[in-house]
Write a structure and sequence with these properties.
Layout lengths: L2 H13 L2 H8 L3 H15 L4 E4 L2 E4 L1 H23 L9 E7 L4 H15 L3 E7 L2 H9 L5 E5 L7 E16 L10 E2 L1 H4 L3 E5 L2 H11 L7 E6 L2 H9 L4 E5 L12 E5 L4 E9 L6 H11 L6
Parallel strand pairs: 3-4, 3-5, 7-11, 8-9, 8-10
Antiparallel strand pairs: 1-2, 5-12, 6-10, 6-11, 6-12
Length: 294
């Protein structure tokens, strides 16, 4: 199986047309059809459903698309990794993160980095901690930012300076918006929207303690932005870190800290004993400078 043919497959899946894909690839349609027929024969699976309106993927085609995208991304990363020299740093750096206060520090790091190395492209992938770790393990991300508690097994890391307070989000016309902070008593029988990560849920459940039986866990959400939209529509109260919705206008959503307080730190991490591109090494060095700041 050649990566070139997998890229042909990806182009057809994107264009949903053999004719359009062939034009984009600058090859003839019969050549493209023959190459992908051989791919189907090699895999022993039908990848396409052909109809009068174009081409769609079968279930096996959808599975192959996911794997082919990972392989194509990895090839692109390999090419980028070998760009640059001791004089000129170029290529790309990929960073995975969630939505939390640590992104403020990351933005400052990236600003300084781009001043030094303007020819490097920085790609930010926003996702849950589990997704970020999986992509790091596959070699598709250089660096990950994780809200604690988080597993750092096999990683080198530093703890960032910014800390996140846990808050409850609500509409500005909600009666609880008048409060300075929110207690467990305030949340009894309210529809709550919890973070998806089980380790974070455990931290919150410990905070609720014996009152857990009087709580209504209505939704979970992997990122705070969508939870905030649900809250704005009156569907529930998201419990998250301040950074998750810190840029929301209070016209739509307000946040009140929990009391007793829950505070979490963020770590920036990278795989231990792994060779990195020059661009990625320079980014790690820039991040490590945070360790020496107050």
């Amino acid at each position: 199986m050649e990566l070139r043919v997998l890229r042909y497959f990806l182009m057809v899946s994107r264009e949903q047309s053999f004719t359009k894909a062939a034009e984009k690839l600058h090859i003839t349609q019969p050549t493209l059809s023959r190459q992908l027929a051989l791919l189907e024969e090699e895999l022993g699976k039908t990848l396409f459903i052909r109809n009068g309106h174009g081409v769609t993927l079968t279930e096996d085609g959808i599975l192959l698309k996911r794997r082919a995208l990972e392989m194509a991304d990895l090839e692109d990363r390999i090419i980028d990794d070998f760009k640059g020299s001791s004089e000129i740093v170029e290529g790309s750096v990929t960073i995975g993160c969630g939505e939390f206060k640590g992104i403020e520090e990351l933005a400052e790091v990236c600003r300084r980095y781009k001043e030094k190395y303007p020819r490097v492209t920085i790609s930010i992938h926003t996702g849950t901690a589990d997704t970020v770790r999986e992509l790091m393990d596959k070699g598709l991300l250089d660096i990950g930012l994780f809200l604690e508690p988080a597993s750092t097994e096999g990683l080198d890391y530093i703890r960032l300076n910014n800390k996140d307070y846990w808050v409850v989000g609500m509409r500005p016309d909600d009666p609880m918006a008048e409060k300075e902070y929110i207690t467990k008593e305030d949340l009894k029988n309210k529809p709550l929207i919890l973070p998806e990560r089980s380790s974070v849920q455990s931290e919150l459940l410990n905070w609720f303690g014996k009152d857990i039986r009087e709580l209504n866990f209505s939704y979970t959400s992997n990122l705070g932005t969508n939870a905030g939209i649900f809250a704005n529509h009156g569907l529930g109260y998201p419990i998250s870190v301040e950074g998750a919705c810190g840029y929301w206008s209070e016209k739509y959503l307000v946040q009140r800290r929990l009391f007793p307080e829950i505070v979490s730190s963020t770590v920036a991490a990278w795989k231990r004993n792994v060779p990195y591109s020059i661009a990625a090494r320079k980014m790690i060095e820039e991040i490590m400078l945070l360790e020496h700041k107050e």
